[in-house]
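Notes to self after the Tuesday call (sharing in case useful).
The group wants a holo model before anyone commits to mutagenesis around the pocket. I volunteered. Ligand is zinc ion. Logging inputs and output together so the record is complete.
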Amino acid sequence: MPFTEILGQEKAISYLQTLVNKKRVPGALLFYGPDGVGKAKTALEFAKTLNCLDPQARQSGQACGVCASCKAIGQQTHPDVLFADFLYQARRKIKKDFSASGYEEELEKELAKQQHLSVDTIREVAAKSQQKAVGNGYKVMIIDQAQSMQGAAANALLKFIEEPPAKTVWILITNKRSAMLRTILSRCQPLAFAPLSHQHIEQILQDNQLETENPSLCAAYSGGSVSGALKADGALTLLKQAGFNQKGCSAQGPAAVATGLSRTLATGRQEAQAILDVLLMALHQSWLRADKADQHRYMQILKQFENYKRSLSRNVSPALIVETALMSLDGISLPIFDTENAYV
Ligand SMILES: [Zn+2]
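Result:
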């Protein structure tokens, strides 16, 4: 995906192209911003630009996309470019213990378990960063979900990003900069990625054939990210299936939504989170439009919902939280499916 096809991140991309043009690529960069706005795609495209076999393309800061190097990076098989995320970590674990048959299912199970990038993963990536480059370009080590590194993993990374060898660049990607160690932050050149406009989200959904029932409604509930739009689609589908309509709740709604959640704890939790996010945005919008007399009621419910969200991160059943949250909306008019009412 060329830089020109990454929508809404012109500022960040132009900064990276300047670094390439001026040959001032730092040893460590931090891409931060919401999930699903193009940080990982930009990192891979930047890696292509740094390694493109076409000197003119390299000079212009726009990878050719067709040379052997660009293609290998696109397929994640380039020996000098490594993309480490939960999938990489899960794959690493599975390959040790499982044969190739039944691999996808095992991988999916292992992936669902991943919550932190481990010290072993970081050490492995760091060891690869020290190996001599195979090509003439840069070694690019990309760490996604960098905020998930805990003490030992973060400390293991620290010494490698401090003084990487020449023509080696680390790119740390995070959706939560505040959760990262200060010592790591201080060694990285930060680069902000902005939330996307609704128009760009709709465009990306369409270009990538990501089907949603109502793209403009999903974009409105997306929080400025494509992954947010897809989560909103899942939440809206569950609510609709349980009989929620333009006006709000149906009598059997709360229990029906709770039953519709995935039985897998991690997935059920994510679905519950998406439902609460959609409802919070709708409640917030209704609060803004309510009469003074009704505003107090909305405010109370909004506060309750923030508590439900906090409970989700603890060991409370997602189904129980969703059911309780929806029951607390009894008697409240909440036009969830009205695009006009969605958070803008
Ligand atoms: Zn190329």
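Two things stood out.
The pocket of zinc ion is lined by residues 52-54, 57, 63-64, 67, 69-70 (CB under 6 Å).
The first strand starts at residue 28 and ends at 32.
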